[in-house]
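Trying the structure run again after the queue cleared.
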Amino acid sequence: MTDIQFNFKSLFLKSTSKPDFLFMKKIILIEDESSVVSFIKKGLQELGYEISVALDGNTGIKMVDTNDFDMIILDIMLPDINGLEVCKEIRKKNKTVPILFLTALDSSENIVMGLESGGDDYLVKPFKFIELVARIKSLLRRSGHISESENDTENDENIYHFEDLTVNDYTKKVSRNGAEISLTSTEYKLLLYFLNNPEKVISRPEILEAVWGVNYELGTNVVDVYVNYLRKKLDSQDDNKIIHTVIGMGYVLKKT
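Done. Tokens:
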């Protein structure tokens, strides 16, 4: 259950028009608790989002298979199958759609399990609606689900260059040697963290905290897994690698 009760419109009185990047962004909420569904659906619809609802995991999987959603909000404790399994099933066919876990399970173990199953972010109940909205906007931007009007203008401050790698943080486009590379939202955030710390050896705890927002308390290998994903997409040639392992210390983005 959420801990906020208020008029959704009053929160955004300063902005009489909907954010440019929305344009009826389609979000599916996979959640079985009716009060939470009503709360989230009402609030997001008033902000201009198009919300679909699945009350169980199997229905959610089918709806994602047959619709083109911009984002998924997913509970873990569902009546039929576990939300973690739902996430894994979705990721078999869709590697890029942002998935936000929204659940009462707040232990570090549960957070890490959610991220390792393919989730991009994790918000614990009870939550504040304003934080949910901020998480949604962040994931949509990171995943490249932005409007055409936003693509019309580019700012040099948003463009990163490293060797033959180019990242436009405005359009979320990544290319190497002119060839465009498709990244998931988590892979993109990880790459951006490396680009903001070039030539610096970064430890696994630092990466986990910066990219996933959790402490390195467990023996998780989620950092290694995602660095490996990123390498496979960025390093087409063994002699031109840019992400290097520093044994016993972490990883570094540096020139070969």
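Residues 129-142 form the longest helix (14 residues). Worth checking whether this holds up in the mutant runs.
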